[in-house]
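Milestone 3.1: sequence recovery, worked example.
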């Protein structure tokens, strides 16, 4: 089984593959974070659960766009946003500056 990447939600490493028990189609497995209780997708095999956990949608451009928008609207904190997008917080503010909504020093415009 692959080594598990840190939790994408809290950065925790208290991770293990859990068996959800028998179902009609056999056992179901997922990775669970013991720090924040996040769960990965259910799979039919332990190795597949680890593979799915390690596949980060944050690497996908569309999800980065959604995460960025959620941060811009105040739904998630900047450190979490930067972590999920795989960038530093300074890069996050540069992205906002590029859109003309916020300068890198954090001063807001009239719309705020």
């Amino acid at each position: 089984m692959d080594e598990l990447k840190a939790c994408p939600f809290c950065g925790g490493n208290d991770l293990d593959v859990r068996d959800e028990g028998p179902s009609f189609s056999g056992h179901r497995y997922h990775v669970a974070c013991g720090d924040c209780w996040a769960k990965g997708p259910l799979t039919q095999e332990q190795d597949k659960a680890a593979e799915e956990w390690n596949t980060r949608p944050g690497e996908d451009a569309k999800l980065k766009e959604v995460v960025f928008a959620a941060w811009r609207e105040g739904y998630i904190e900047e450190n979490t946003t930067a972590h999920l997008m795989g960038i530093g917080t300074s890069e996050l503010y540069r992205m906002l500056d590029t859109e003309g909504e916020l300068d890198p020093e954090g001063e807001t415009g009239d719309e705020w």
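The beta strands are 15-23, 26-33. The first strand starts at residue 15 and ends at 23.
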